């Protein structure tokens, strides 16, 4: 009897220990964000999870285990002792690797978690000094090609989208980026008032307006159909209220502002920092360190800029019904509705 009581007590202690192993983790909610999305800090922590590059090294076996754990939770067959932390980790892995609509694996370079590791070499190339016409065209083309593939791989796949829309957005982004970058470089080269040092410094900042304008062009062209057809708006209970063109304009404006803010620290801070570091005795004595140091500076700027930029607006944005079409306002008693802004 005593042995049985001791065993039961040990089992209870073990269960309590497992339950308390993740006291800092909030209660798990399938398909919901771990962090509150009403504050900038909550969104920032949420997107840090989404872009975590460690998920690139998750094995096929670990992915299957994560998916199975979530399936067990969904069907109420979860084994005893599984903590909230384990469930949040499993959902993070699944969301980082599998497309939410097709449930297919996203090619590694085009995952959000791969955006910084695979995008940093491109940023370094964009910021290389003494760019030729050919190198300017190459790096702008490569940057917009990578962006277009990331956009397509992480698209909303619930509705079929014609390939022509993707091609149109891709060509528009590449043409605008290359045209602006080449045009600004030509103007700088012809500016006789600049000293060679000033001309080199100005050239380093040329990629920002080119990339920022191309990003806006990419968003508008890739999602122009939303402006024509509207996007779904939902009430507080998640019920579909209707399709709103006004909400679509808000969504595209917020996304465009994010795409302008994103390259700002990435393409402005590194040139400013490198112009100071190049004057140090260390780099002047060891010019071979210039490229590795610039790569580290770009990586740090990229790692900070991406979560900050995409945290500016919540992905599920809220808007008052009085600002929408009259038929939308009449279709619900809710004071506000929400819509998916997209990334």
TrEMBL record:
Tagged with keyword Cell inner membrane: no
Gene that produces this protein: SFXN5
One BP term from GO: mitochondrial transmembrane transport
Record key words, sorted: Amino-acid transport, Membrane, Mitochondrion, Transmembrane, Transmembrane helix, Transport
Upper classification of the organism: Eukaryota, Metazoa, Chordata, Craniata, Vertebrata
First-listed, main subcellular location of the protein, grouped into a coarse class: mitochondrion
Protein name per Swiss-Prot or TrEMBL: Sidoreflexin
Family classification: Belongs to the sideroflexin family.
A Pfam entry, by short name: SFXNs
Membrane topology: Multi-pass membrane protein
Organism of origin: Physeter macrocephalus (Sperm whale)
Entry's localization field: Mitochondrion membrane
GO molecular function: citrate transmembrane transporter activity; monoatomic ion transmembrane transporter activity
TM spans (from-to): 169-188, 260-277, 289-313
InterPro entries per UniProt: Mtc
Annotated Gene Ontology cellular component terms: mitochondrial inner membrane
